[in-house]
Amino acid sequence: MSTATTAISPAGFVRAFRRVPPSVAWLAGPLLLIVAVPVADAFLPPDIHLAHLLTVATAVAAFGSGPRATTLVGSAALLSLTVAGLERHTLTTESVLVEWCSLAAVSVLLILFTHLRDRHERALLRALSVSDTAQRVVLRPLPERAGPVRLASEYRSADADAHVGGDLYASARTTGSTRLIIGDVRGKGLASISDTAIVLGAFRAAAHREIPLPELVSYVEDAVRWGLAEFSKSEADLHERFVTAVIVDIPDDEPVVHLVSCGHPPPLLVRRSTGTVTTLQVAEPAPPLGLAVGESSAGMYVPATFPFRDGDRLILYTDGVTEARDPAGRFYPLAERVAVRAGHEPGPLVEAITADLRDHAGGRLRDDMAVVVAQRDPGPVVVAQRDPGPVGG
User: Fold this and answer.
1) Which DSSP letter does residue 189 get?
2) Tag placement on the chain: N or C end, fewer CB within 10 Å?
């Protein structure tokens, strides 16, 4: 009977090493160093001692591993120092005892450090999980299609640890139209989440009902004014809180778009036939939500109507986009950059704007930003359910 041996090629060794968990691979160096110290001490002159390298091994383990692995490496380092002292018959000397106690103290501190670090990381992961949940509940992703309208959106918070903040958007379907809202709560990041939730909750409660656009905006205004007054800490705080917004209604059976602007930056319209980019300036803009004088009334909200044909794209955005500055202080030229990408589909267009904006701002946004692209497509219309009744009914 013959026995065959298989040689492992360098490439095979590398592939096998890559399959090792990172924490285990990270410990290979410290453990090899721990083994090497007593071996090297057996061959070195008596005046040369490598015990200080054992502290390095424990520190490296603590940097890339958890408390258990650090405890293992620290214990192995103490054992290595003991073996080296026995080899040289110097274990009970003052020098080795000081080295042993110092290594033990450093190991204990590093174990405590890894424990606190891991606890902090777990707390951070829980916070990120809560943030993700809040984003899904408050700022739900837009559907890819709503009736004859294709949608794409992107959101970035100014807070690096927050996934939802002061910018907002939402969509809703009625039996014959698609409705959109985009808004910007005064403030940014985590502090503005409550106001964001108020606006989106009011819009979602009423937008799907068969009410005219002015009545929808009036309903949202009433809810925002009540919410801001309810949660404001003082009268001064109340007067400093408001929400700019654009509320849009896109009928299924008419090539137009109706919109009401409440102090918000004007949308852009990209014509499919020519590729031109037009700013949709509203002749009678309304005040921001929460700042209406007296009792709100649908009469103060006058919709503006613009042509919106098959293939046209409507771009809604917040001032976090157009007010982003480059290192030289120049604002982001959204209309100019959109014109260059006029042929992009909604999804790629949103991705391109977001990437370009981040590059323009030097990789860091100083304000929340949101972008929504809506494109009217020919094809079958998805019919929503019948209106369940009047608002509040």
Assistant:
1) G
2) N
C-alpha span between 212 and 245 (Å, rounded)? 17
Pairing of strands 149-156, 167-173: unpaired
Q: Are 149 and 365 in contact (CB under 8 A)?
A: no
pTM greater than 0.85 (yes/no): no
Query: Domains in the chain, please, with CATH?
Result: 10-131 (no CATH), 142-376 (3.60.40.10)
pLDDT in tens, 260-308: 999 999 999 999 888 899 999 998 889 999 887 655 566 789 999 999 9
Q: 309-321 pLDDT, tens per residue?
A: 999 999 999 999 9
Residues 57, 58, 62, 68: what is their CA dihedral angle, to the nearest 10 degrees?
A: 120
CA distance 301 to 259: 10
Mean pLDDT (the chain, rounded): 82
The three-state DSSP-derived secondary structure of 135-166 is HHHHCCCCCCEECCEEEEEEEECCCCCCCCCC
Percent of the chain with pLDDT over 90: 41
d(CA 209, CA 376): 21
Q: Is the CB of residue 189 less than 8 Å from the CB of residue 369?
A: no
Q: How far, CA to CA in Å, does 97 sit from each of 93, 108, 219, 344?
A: 6, 17, 78, 72
CA angle 251, 256, 257 (to 5 degrees): 75
What pLDDT, in 10s, does the model give residues 114-130? 999 988 888 888 877 77
Tell me, what's the pLDDT at 243?
92
How far apart, in whole angstroms, are the C-alpha atoms of residue 67 and residue 303? 63
